[in-house]
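User: quick one - fold this with alpha-D-glucopyranose bound?
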Amino acid sequence: MSRHTPRASELTLEQKAALLSGGGFWSSAEIAEAGIRAAVLTDGPHGVRRQMQGTDHLGQLHSEPATCFPLAVAVGSSWNTDVAARIGSALAVEARALGVDVLLGPGVNIKRSPLGGRNFEYFSEDPRLTGELAGAYVRALQAGGVGASLKHFAANDQETDRMVVSADVDERTLREVHLAAFERVISTANPETVMCSYNRINGVYASENHWLLTEVLREEWGYDGLVVSDWGAVRDRTVSLQAGLDLAMPGPGNTYTEDVLSAVRAGTLDEAIVDRSAQRVLDVASRQRQEHTEFDVDAHHALARELATECAVLLRNEHGVLPVAAGTSILVVGEFAVEPRFQGGGSSHVNATQVDQPLAWIEAHAVARGCEIRFERGFDSAREDESLVSTAAEAAQTAHLAIIFAGNPESEESEGFDRTRLELAPAQVRLIREVAAVAPRTVVVLANGGVVSLEGWHDDVDAILEGFLLGQGGGHAIADLLFGVASPSGRLAESIPMRREDTPSYLTFPGEQGHVRYGEGVMVGYRHYETVGVATRYPFGHGLEYSTFSSADLDVVVTGPDTATARVTVTNTGGVAGKHVVQLYVATDAGPVLRPARQLAAFTKVDLAAGESSRVTLELDRSAFAYWDIDLHRFAVAGGTYRVQLAEHSSSIVSEHVVALEGDVAMASLSLQSTVGEWAAHPVVGNLVSQVLATLLANAESTVQPNSESGELPEVIGLMPMIQLIGVSGGALNVDDLLLLANSDSPS
Ligand code: GLC
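Assistant: Sure. Structure tokens for the protein plus alpha-D-glucopyranose:
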């Protein structure tokens, strides 16, 4: 029976103030006398971390058993919104069974450096891929009765100094990259809560950032849910309330409530603000949610495995060494084959209900295929032991195929610190090289939360299967992929660079003296590599399959001033069923800003039987063409031509179709800082400006004159700011009239 929950306006000031801070480490405040229950908020995002006794926000203490699903890094590699949605749905059942109202996830921060310590909790270097997958997760989670908490808002893209560092980000970069995924999820999935981050953005703490939490999130994006702090992120409770932060976590035991009461009584805090935030807490606490008393542990485990097979990325497969052929004599090497690496450290750490061991499942498949099998540990992440390497190398002499499990130990990838090394541990590199030097064929299976460098051993091995962190079913999934029980279909959601120095954030990550400057601007990941022509080891969107596919007959129809519809025919031209990711990018020079060589515009994953074809439709919405205009302070689509590119990955274009869009910004607004050339090129005032200029130059018997045929201005004049020319024009140019005329038809 649903209890009547009072409105905030029916409560006393003391009761309202109490609602604005946690009542416990994982709960909002209960106000029994008013019939207000406490809402439970706990981690996510890839498994429920429900703590009934000891509490911590770093994943050190016990939590109730729950399913550890593929992590965001893996879901990002699936390029499949269904994978994200199915995880969201299953998590909702588990969360409700464990009494959770809000699950703290998904994380949609952007991987501006491969060294980001929590990259395993984030989806991609691309905001569109991130936003689409996270949106599917949120819709499914909330359809199951559990609120999401979209985090960490915003620009929390590193762990170094995360509680104090200021992310110094220009307006366009924030909008097009670091806020874009948040905006997409909020507009398509309306998460019940948004979690503000610890860090500062351009010098102002997110928890106190009125521009971020109110002007952008609420006034511009229309968000009306609850804003909750990251745990311990609130500094001044009154300032944070005024900025738009509704619920300070964790509780209890802080002075926040007293601070609020004092501020209201002193007249420095408007009680209406208290009412508004208290009502948002009440809305979450009083929401009627599905009740579950338990969840099907085995079914969820099987689901975790099934979804994991869609996430792993087959990077390399020379000589068709995979899938493993029947009768192969196999040597399995590496501690991760027996003690699998399947999740990261920190608040997302799940007490998994069970964990599949890769070796056990490889043995099961091997036996069924008449394959001999042997295991050697090869390395021990806890201690150096050279003998392990030599023993493994010796064993490799009598095998047809060596399968080496490598990657980063959990101790190196966690919330709270960033990685300092892009490469695998030297002991692992040595092991790979020594085994590969002996074994006829070598496969490396990787388990790592952020991309690792493959240099120094890549050419020594025949195949590389990048598993990232696949959750508790990953061991079985990897075995299924190795033996062809499942076909790989993952694609890189993060570029794998050749060198750390090649990465766009190399010179600025993780910052200095309390500041990290996003010097790469919008050129994050593949946008950088493709624009400046830096080769990667494997590009964004790369991934191999066991079958072969063709994508053809791209057709793009303009459906409005800033939208289009694309159609592509995909055919499975190989001998086995498989899934293929269709990737569309947009390339353009339109607009007054430098655009990346291309940007992901739309994607979809198709499941095709051998020989089957499908014609798929992909909608290109306005955001596929828009840039953020810092004069207009909004997204704009410049009139002009746009190349819609069908691609195998960000570096391989299959075909393209050029469309012309009317856009909504025929011209950039002119100002006195605009160049003379921009004024002369303006469709309305350009001729007048050019005529006056020609006269001025002629009368001055200037050594530089417009081109006698084209009338084009000499560069030395064209690149001058108009304000400089006015100074020497002797009043020949009435700028006020020109500005009025030039910008009269630019949208406001
Ligand atoms: C942590 C994390 C956040 C998590 C919260 C609660 O510090 O930054 O992602 O949800 O605290 O554990």
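One thing worth noting: Residues 72 and 385 are 33 Å apart (CA to CA).
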